[in-house]
Amino acid sequence: MEASDILYKTVLLVIIMLITLLVAMYSTYGERKIAAYMQDRRGPNRAGPFGLLQPLADGIKMFMKEEIIPLSANAWLFILGPSLAMTTALLTGVVIPWGDTLIIGGKEFSLQITDLNIGILYVFAMVSIGVYGIMIGGWASNNKYALLSAIRAASQMISYELAMGISIISLILTTGTLSLHEIVQQQAGFHWNIFYQPLGFLIFLVCSLAETNRAPFDLPECETELIGGYHTEYSSMKLGFYLFAEYINMFISSAVIATLFLGGYNMPFLGSLGLSQNLTTMLGSFFFFLKILLVIFTFMWVRWTLPRFRYDQLMNLGWKGLMPLALFNFLATGIYYYFFVLK
Amino acid sequence: MMQKLTNRSFIASDKKMTFRERIYLPAVLSGMAITLRHFFKKKVTISYPEQIREFSKVYRGQHVLKRDEQGRERCTACGLCAVACPAEAITMVAAERKPGEEHLYREEKYAKVYEINMLRCIFCGDCEEACPKEAIFLTDRIVEAKYKRMPFVYGKGLLVEPADPHKRVDISARQTSEVLKFKNDDRYAHNR
């Protein structure tokens, strides 16, 4: 690797991390605004114009709060929990193709930090490790509610990751590659995977809601039953990390959905505009972010519409609903490709 | 059978769900349509300090002790308002008018101390109705919020209106000719 490459990657890494944090920050604002609007209220509008400084105020508040580690808690694991949640949430962003290639000084630079040939697997691995943040934090708190929440998080993760994985397998059958970059390139024009795998998309979307612990599947948090669940004992910025990691996860999940199913940075008319390569790339990235925001909006929209599932309903839906559906989708895709495409 | 309050109530049962209900999606989508409709609806919130909700003309807010046309206090400390008050918020100490105070008090007796505890007051307006001298009225002013309790006991300094004819508190909305006629009507027991 040349020095310029390393420099470029470092800069890109920092930029993407900052953007991720910024989007997560303003997701909290967006969440409150959307919640308010759906309940005929106005939402935060006192801190700055339109309440735009609200996330900043919340952040300062979180930092100023007293740091408490309960006496009976396992201090190391107690600190490890939120750190792990935050780290894994941020790590996923590196394989996502945020845009096409830029040409600077005659050299091509990809807007993807690293194009792993097993990109999807990497995403899955990181998301799976993410649940350890919740489990470790919940267990280390030495609190019944937190422990219950940790157990719920683990069981929910297992039941939904299966259906999610199988829906991804059927997607991979159609794309023939695990690299996110190639998957996006295949969707050029209007060949978005959502049209080829509508059922897979639906399953993936529902499972994403469960994976990011958002309503209607926010059983690990569950204010009414578990008093916040795994973060019952947390205070100050450690609590902030947990809450923030949830929003980062949501952003990354939306990015993954947009990449896999909504064509990533492709837009049907973009290639025919006759713009320069760099401008097309920038516009593509813009549309990619627009798609991500749309998915985030859908996430919030669902949250403020549906009540929480009961634990047994959740398990029923996961194992008896989504799992067979995903298997059926897998089988149907496989049969179609075996008999009609490969022949 | 009990009368239904709305036409939206239905009898809940744990019957087996139909296929349509079991796949959740139609219900989920219709729910999302409802929330989206609300998303674009006009907001009902009134942003208080900048925007103030319009009061009714006969709003019952902070009291005023009226003066007559010559600027004399109308209150004679008869105590009917204190008796009528369901919250027992009104207390007063009566005093006799001294010679030379005729320009201050309308009749021989006046209230030396007149206090309303605004934390006790329920703003029902019974004091106004009980007053035979048209001395006390409720107005459309709001009792200011405070951090301590004591400032909520309003004395004469806060209650009596200024003597300056231009600074009088307008109570014409509450004291219409119909109200006056009703108050003076002999057919009602309280006027006999």
Summarize the structure.
With 343 residues, chain A is mainly α. Helix content of chain A is 67%, strand content 2%.
Annotation keywords:
A: mainly alpha, two-stranded antiparallel ribbon, 2 strands, B: 192 residues, alpha+beta, Alpha-Beta Plaits, three-stranded antiparallel sheet
Can you characterise this structure?
The complex is a heterodimer of chains A (343) and B (192). Chain A has 343 residues and is mainly α. Chain A has one domain (3-341). Chain A is 67% helix and 2% strand. Chain A has 12 helices and 2 strands. Chain A has helices spanning 3-38, 54-64, 75-91, 119-140, 144-175, 180-186, 193-196, 198-211, 223-226, 236-260, 277-303, 311-341; strands spanning 101-104, 107-110. Chain A has a two-stranded antiparallel sheet with strand order 1-2. In chain A, a hairpin with a 2-residue loop joins strand 1 and strand 2 (107-110). In chain A, helix 3 runs antiparallel to helix 4 (119-140) and helix 3 runs parallel beside helix 10 (236-260). Chain A starts with a helix and ends with a helix. Chain B is α+β, with helices and mostly antiparallel strands and 192 residues long. Chain B has a domain at 63-191: Alpha-Beta Plaits, CATH 3.30.70. Chain B contains 6 helices and 5 strands; from the N terminus they run ααβαββαββαα. Chain B has helices spanning 19-22, 25-39, 80-84, 126-130, 156-159, 177-184; strands at 63-65, 90-96, 109-117, 136-138, 153-154. Chain B has a 3-stranded antiparallel β-sheet with strand order 2-3-5. A two-stranded antiparallel ribbon of chain B has the order 1-4. Chain B starts with 18 loop residues before the first helix and ends in an 8-residue tail after the last helix. The chains are: A mainly alpha (343), B alpha+beta (192). The A-B interface holds A 34, 37-42, 45, 301-302, 304-306, 317, 321 and B 23-24, 28, 31-32, 34-36, 38-39, 41, 43-45, 47.
